[in-house]
Amino acid sequence: MISEELLLSHKAKLVNYRSNETIFTEGDTAKFYFQVQRGSVKMFNLNENGKEFVQGIFYDGDSFGEPPLFGAFKYPASAEAAEDSSVFKLSKAMLFELLKSNFNTHLKFTATLSNRLAYKAMILKEMSVHPPEHRILTLVDHLKKKYGGDTLFQIDLTRQQIADLTGLRVETVIRAFKQLESEGEIEIIKRKIYR
């Protein structure tokens, strides 16, 4: 989202995280802007039974955890590296300085946050009123639009990750994929999902 050159010129540090290493915890005070250089990061909540609900997965170039920097509230979710990852870490004060002095970056940043709000509203609607197959297709189509384009798109998420992102059980996701395949909505080739 923000160019590496701009981040580094504003004193961002590149931090390496091992797979499953915590970056921040729900309830922590937000002090830094984070942007994935390489790898992936998941933001999630745990319920009282330890079940994970994934708020989002962020890949190369994606930022995460920004709203608390602007709203002065604690992190509403935890973040951890989903695989070995390198993440830019920039202080809140330097982020604000960067945005003040780079209007085009500020506009791009605002557009990204707006798109995330739209995604959250879409997912909340899906989870509250639609059956599993519809929820899954909405998620898959969102990922295809964001990362895949117009060709046959491979979903690089596990069935567990899809369950975590849609609030479903893994067994439900597996049954829904079989139903979607029989309806011609997706293809399953060597255990990989395509749309």
TrEMBL record:
UniProt keyword list: DNA-binding, Transcription, Transcription regulation
Domain (Cyclic nucleotide-binding): residue spans on this chain: 17-99
InterPro entries found in the cross-reference section: cNMP-bd_dom, cNMP-bd_dom_sf, Env_Response_Regulators, HTH_CRP, RmlC-like_jellyroll, WH_DNA-bd_sf
GO cellular component: cytosol
A GO molecular function held by the record: DNA-binding transcription factor activity
Pfam families, per database record: cNMP_binding, HTH_Crp_2
PANTHER family for this protein: CRP FAMILY TRANSCRIPTIONAL REGULATORY PROTEIN (PTHR24567), REGULATORY PROTEIN YEIL (PTHR24567:SF26)
Protein name (Swiss-Prot/TrEMBL): cAMP-binding protein
Organism lineage: Bacteria, Pseudomonadati, Bacteroidota, Flavobacteriia, Flavobacteriales
